[in-house]
Amino acid sequence: xxxxxxxxxxxxxxxxxxxxxxxAATSASAVVTLRYDDRQARGWEAAIAxxxxxxxxxxxxxxxxxxxxxxxxxxxxxxxxxWPQATIGPVRPGGRGxxxxxxxxxxxxxxxxxxxxxxxxxxLGLPDTKPGPCSQLMSGSAAGTGCKNAVPDLAEQARxxxxxxxxxxxxxxxxxxxxxxxx
Length: 183
Prior knowledge:
Layout: H1 2-10, H2 13-16, H3 19-29, E1 32-40, H4 45-58, E2 62-66, E3 75-80, E4 85-87, E5 97-102, H5 103-107, H6 112-123, H7 154-163, E6 178-180
Parallel strand pairs: 1-2, 1-3, 3-5
Antiparallel strand pairs: 4-5, 4-6
């Protein structure tokens, strides 16, 4: 192994890059990045960041990133007093996804991070799976207030991966159907 490392270190820069390194760089640049704006979601920032991290850890074809000031967001996330709801996607870059994180669900005892991950799941194209167990993120409120799971199960991950597998897919038109997640 040390010999291989020494040989690579001594190789000219033009030949040091291997085919897998090139393929990995191409694949990484082809990931669909969706930017979200949470400036109107005061009090939910930590839950939103944890939800985005959960999706980013569990899917490869799409990456959620917080929109920088002055840049356009593909997903608007707002806090409301009502019940959580979101636009059904899959949202594409340039799209207009919306997530409403409802205080009513929190007041009833539902977990903020699970709510945020579930609603973002709608933007990524997933419908509710009610009734369903806690292990299914998209079961939402059907899993009960004791459920804290904010991780998509393998089937949910596979569906999102399939929605974003063709990275050159066209943009989603503005608008979309908003789905309320009341029990």
